[in-house]
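Predict the structure of thiopurine S-methyltransferase.
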Amino acid sequence: SDVGSQKDRVVTEEEWLEKWEMGNIGFHKEEGHPLLQKYLDVLLNGRSGLRIFFPLCGKAVEMKWLTDMGHSVVGVEISEQAVKEFFSEHSLPYCEEPVTEISGAKVFQSTSGNISLYCCSIYDLSSSIVGKFDGVWDRGALVAVNPCDRQRYASLMISLVEKNSSYLLVTVSYDPNKHKGPPFYVPESEIKSLFG
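Done. Here is the predicted structure for thiopurine S-methyltransferase.
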């Protein structure tokens, strides 16, 4: 198959946490992603004051960039270290509260109120907890999700977006027989079957 040996590969939450602890975060970009800058007009579609979702956000600098433009950002990340590093690296004061609907989860919110980062499994979220979004910036989430969880992930993402939302998705193209992932190879045909 065109996904090679990746089909059955599973990366655990513990492995992701260890990547953050060890500083093995080559997926993090210190500069804003050039594709977000290039396609920003597609994401915003002439609208202002949007709610934009960052799945598996890490400490993405684009979150601050978009809030500086007047949008609000909600992210989800399993690593509390990543979330705290985001706020400290941008010198943003925040408060931390438990998420009553999700056992063990916390939400870190900037005191300005325009950035809310949930520290939990993305699969614990629902629109009843985080609401719906006008836009999604998926730079490294779909390609990080275990291949066996892609349908679950796509269904969740579809449930979190408004009807007129914009969804920017970045994937990587390579021979999946030569790299075990992540990032995982997601063929265009599968993106179409997942998202329509």
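The helical segments are 13-22, 34-38, 40-44, 62-68, 80-89, 127-130, 150-160, 188-195.
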